[in-house]
Amino acid sequence: MNLDDIRAAAGRISGHAHRTPILTSRTLDERVGAKVLLKCENFQRMGAFKFRGAYNALSRLSADALARGVCAHSSGNHAQAIALSAALLGTKATILMPQDAPQSKVDAVLGYGAEVQRFDRYTDDRETLAEELAQQQGSTLIPPYDHPDVMAGQGTAALELLEDAGELDALAVPMSGGGLMAGSAVAATSLQPGITMIGVEPSTANDTQLSLAAGERVSLDAPRTIADGLAVWTPGELTFPINRKLVSEVVTVTDEEIVEAMRFLFDRMKIVVEPSGAVGVAVLLQGRISLPGKRIGVIISGGNVSTDRFRELLG
């Protein structure tokens, strides 16, 4: 994957994905001591950046592959992205979702017309289940991050940010399997070689942080965090080498700090952000990224949180 792949993906998703806004806050700038620019993918179609990679990947399938359908495994946002993309491209989708996935995300997947099958994220191997499902159906498996077209599609978020905001000193990106970071890092470092790429993970799901320290992919035991979209066991096989090369550091935040960031974004900026999407702002509010006077981009990865869950977390 390179910058040309990301630019090609931008062409494919143009007119289908939203070019999401960049928001700023004087209060946030004062708290951080820097100029912060938020790329708000909570305003993306289906509520998260995942639509970019899903649509790009599905749009590259042959007519025969589309006729046979697609499948995926996801805790929610990739599931919704595949379901919506499949509906737009006229194919069927079957999604494996954890039993504890937020009901609002399950309902959204069903609402887009996809079939949902459930699994236990703490005991089942979701990748094996998905591969078996694809073989049974004859469908194409589209993984949530370990796929060149998915990574390229996700990288269009950073591409747009840099095109619209201009030069940045650093870019903070939420990390789960690493697809958003891999695409963003390739786009950002290609356009601005001096930029600092900073990954952000929940403190209980810091698989990439540990893997970078070890120099190889490390696996965790069933991470638990309110940021369900970031609760992965190990970095992606394809994403990790890219992120190992291009990411400067990975920092972590606790669930309590994530909630504080969600509250700040709602109270001060009047936007609803899901836990996974708030981690970049959380790490800034906690002072774990200190770049006085610099320009810092942050990707707000999504806003898919139900009213009841939002009230529960902030209550």
Summarize the structure.
The protein is an alpha/beta fold and 315 residues long. It has 14 helices and 10 strands. The mean pLDDT is 96.
Report on this structure.
With 315 residues, the chain is an alpha/beta fold. Helix content is 46%, strand content 15%. The strands form two sheets. Strands 1-2-10-7-8-9 form a six-stranded mixed beta sheet, sandwiched between helices. The longest helix is centred in the middle third of the chain and has 18 residues. The radius of gyration is 18 Å and the shape is globular. The N and C termini lie far apart (43 Å). The model has no long low-confidence stretch (mean pLDDT 96).
| Main sheet specs | 6 strands, mixed
Strand order of the largest sheet: 1-2-10-7-8-9
The secondary-structure element order is HEHEHHEHEHEHEHEHEHHEHHEH
User: Could you give the distance between the termini?
Assistant: 43 Å
- Please tell me the overall pLDDT: 96
Low-confidence stretches at least 5 residues in length (pLDDT < 50)? Answer: none
Cα radius of gyration in angstroms: 18 Å
State the secondary-structure class: alpha/beta
Q: Helix coverage percent of residues?
A: 40-55%
Q: With helices defined by DSSP (H or I, 4 residues minimum), what is the helix count? A: 14
Strand content: 15-25%
Number of strands: 10
Task: Choose one word for the global shape.
Answer: globular
